[in-house]
Amino acid sequence: xxxxxxxxxxxxxxxxxxxxxxxxxxxxxxxxxxxxxxxxxxxxxxxxxxxxxxxxxxxxxxxxxxxxxxxxxxxxxxxxxxxxxxxxxxxxxxxxxxxxxxxxxxxxxxxxxxxxxxxxxxxxxxxxxxxxxxxxxxxxxxxxxxxxxxxxxxxxxxxxxxxxxxxxxxxxxxxxxxxxxxxxxxxxxxxxxxxxxxxxxxxxxxxxxxxxxxxxxxxxxxxxxxxxxxxxxxxxxxxxxxxxxxxxxxxxxxxxxxxxxxxxxxxxxxxx
Length: 272
Fold this sequence. Notes:
272 residues, alpha/beta, two-stranded parallel sheet, 12% strand
């Protein structure tokens, strides 16, 4: 799913090829059909082709919902080992109608070429994969491996040992990403705490939801389920007494990473 122009069709094509070459023939198909070839059978339904077949170009909410039911019916009746359906699915009701086993959100553009679809599109809150770059072959392999192995994304475990990262993240940048990768290597999950400090000291221009969206867009593709974002007060001091069972560590990076400056980035954006 994703806006028109986000790369859904390229992803579907690459994923179909990967599953055909690396997937396993389903048990149900092996029982019901004489297998004459050992490649997986992957069915692919493109929304435009389905609309063309039915000559249905109604993009009202009712027309979009009708299309989602049609796509769902095609998927359920198609047979094969895997079924891929690529369509925009801008409405929550459409996604609920389709009931995908795996949802891939192609989040590579902010706006598509159709303004009515841009206005209708509700970013999903539930998805299995969020792809933020148009590199179909790379992500088809990553996603295909998860599907073939039925390997779901991790779920954050609140009782597991966790690394805490506290900051303003105004904005989140590649230096923060480098720190996150160090942190997650320690325990496998990270709690990112965002200080509620918009406008503090005449700077910090980004609202909490903006900060969270920048972090999620950067981390979701590879680390979905392995981090949580928590909003905390504008913490300026951290105090502790005797040894309390956790460590406070400073990570050292090369000068290129260390010199990445959120202040400079804001200045380039015309912000304080």
